[in-house]
Design goal:
alpha+beta, Aminopeptidase, Alpha-Beta Plaits, 9-stranded antiparallel β-sheet, 6-stranded mixed β-sheet
């Protein structure tokens, strides 16, 4: 583990390091599931894999805790796979390379996978610990969470027995979460008319890069630029100024739940020098109003002789598409009226592919309120429909997790937090989606909360986890397990 071997708790970091060695993109969790199943079986733990590939590990209660309420520790096996454009990392076969920097663990050139690898490592360390007092434990590790929570949606009602659940997938230490946003994906996939391009027009690839990116739930309020949106704004500005160009292709983003850091367009132009001037002016304006996280934003150009040989969008179609993307809701729509400082409703334009006359756009709408989800997604659908696009799908509905301030588990966790750290935990809801929304729908009698260490930059290559907060999260987890009361008698 190199310089990670000295980190505490040792077992948590050892499990996390082992997870980093196994590729685990969404939908490709078989290798990590098999490794954990073998590890659990070797320790005499129960192992169950359901039809969707979710993994459930079990451990009996320690002596004296047999009559206490069973607890489910929950996380997800997959991670968001993002890397810098110049990285050669292959997420199908290469291990993540964690490094320690100034009290944080991060990765070289890629996402770290602390979301949700650290949560999984905490749960595995609890299963492994011989000196931990706890009731019967079930560790529920779902698959395909980052791609739409498909593993959680497929769980059977009898998948777990415990009715106290600790979700270990939030990313702000000191906060205990009791609610989360729901979400839908709005996916557009339509053909567009093409026309031939005059042969004397030069092909150029225009690239927007240097953005911070991030998680489309927890980072959406930070004012970070969306590369797809900014590229559309720049191209729309060229149209409005009468600049003569043809749009051959346009791409950006790789995940619906990540704020795109880079985007590019292949253009055919007559006058590259004027294009450079416009780009310089656009970047200067952006830098004058973005925060320090986005100070590296730039627009670059390179020849695109091979990419630019195809036909381009018909002129009026290009104008309409760029105007639509320019005006499309992106970022925060509403802040919560009940929870100060928390985003209520947002949209992220996560992926865009325009190539060979086919437009594909994937957007993720989130809200703490079902009405907010439907209102914003309906508006987006209407904007595309107004152009005659009819292949539009609203999919992947993730339920809202409605807060329960009277939760007994919450009260117990706050007591443990107060006694352990001599201060109060903040009770919060999160704009990101948690699988708790699905669990609350699937098991309405289950009492649940969520907490975890501090993670910054999730879903982006600068993802990092604070070392000290991991130990704090372990202390809270151990304290809660020891404090679980006896089962309430059934009347």
């Amino acid at each position: 583990m190199n310089d990670l071997s000295s980190l505490r708790p040792v077992a948590v970091w050892r499990h996390f390091f082992n997870l980093c060695r196994i590729p685990r993109a969404s939908g490709r969790e078989a290798a990590v599931r098999e490794a954990l199943s073998e590890w659990a079986a070797d320790r005499g733990l129960s192992v169950k894999v359901d039809s969707r590939g979710n993994l459930i590990l079990g451990k009996p209660a320690t002596a004296g805790y047999e009559n206490r309420a069973g607890v489910v520790l929950q996380g997800h096996l997959d991670m968001v796979c993002q890397k810098h454009n110049d990285s050669t990392h292959d997420f199908e076969r290469d291990p993540i390379r964690p490094v320690l920097r100034d009290g944080w663990v991060t990765a070289l050139d890629t996402t770290l996978g602390a979301d949700n690898g650290i949560g999984v490592a905490l749960a595995l360390a609890a299963l492994e610990a011989d000196d931990l007092e706890h009731p019967a434990l079930e560790v529920l590790l779902t698959v395909d969470e980052e791609a739409g929570m498909h593993g959680a949606m497929a769980l059977e009602r009898d998948a777990v027995k415990g009715r106290l659940l600790l979700n270990l997938d939030t990313e702000e230490w000191g906060e205990i979460y009791i609610g989360c946003a729901g979400s839908v994906d709005v996916v557009v996939d339509v053909p567009l008319p093409l026309v031939a391009v005059p042969e004397d027009m030069q092909a150029v690839c225009l690239q927007i890069s240097g953005l911070a990116g991030g998680h489309s739930g927890i980072d959406i309020h930070r004012g970070r630029g969306n590369a797809i949106k900014l590229l559309a704004q720049f191209l729309h500005r060229l149209v409005e100024k009468g600049f003569d160009f043809r749009l051959v292709s346009m791409t950006g983003g790789t995940a619906h739940n990540a704020i795109p850091r880079e985007a590019e367009a292949v253009l055919r132009v007559e006058d590259i020098s004027s294009l450079l001037v416009e780009a310089g002016s656009f970047v200067a304006e952006l830098r004058s109003r973005v925060n320090d996280e986005e100070s590296g934003i730039c627009i670059g150009f390179e020849p695109a002789s091979e990419q630019g040989t195809g036909d381009a969008l018909a002129g009026e179609t290009a104008r309409q598409v760029l105007a639509l993307l320019h005006d499309l809701p992106c970022g925060v729509r509403h802040m919560s009226g009940q929870m100060p400082g928390v985003v209520e409703t947002s949209n992220n334009i996560g992926e865009l592919r325009l190539k060979d006359g086919r437009l594909h756009v994937n957007m993720m709408v989130r809200s703490l309120d079902e009405h907010g989800i439907h209102t914003l997604s309906d508006e987006i659908v209407a904007r595309f429909s107004a152009l005659g696009f009819d292949d539009i799908h609203v999919t992947g509905a993730g339920p809202v997790w409605h807060p329960n301030p009277e939760s007994k588990l919450l009260a117990m966790a706050r007591d443990v937090y107060r006694q352990t750290f001599n201060c109060e935990a903040t009770v919060q809801v999160i704009h990101a989606g948690l699988e708790c929304g699905i669990f609350n729908w699937r098991w309405p009698d289950m009492d649940m909360i969520s907490f975890g260490p501090t993670i910054r930059g999730a879903h982006a290559p600068n993802e990092r986890v604070e070392v000290a907060s991991v130990e704090h999260a372990w202390q809270l987890l151990a304290g809660i397990l020891a404090a679980v009361p006896e089962r309430e008698s059934e009347s």
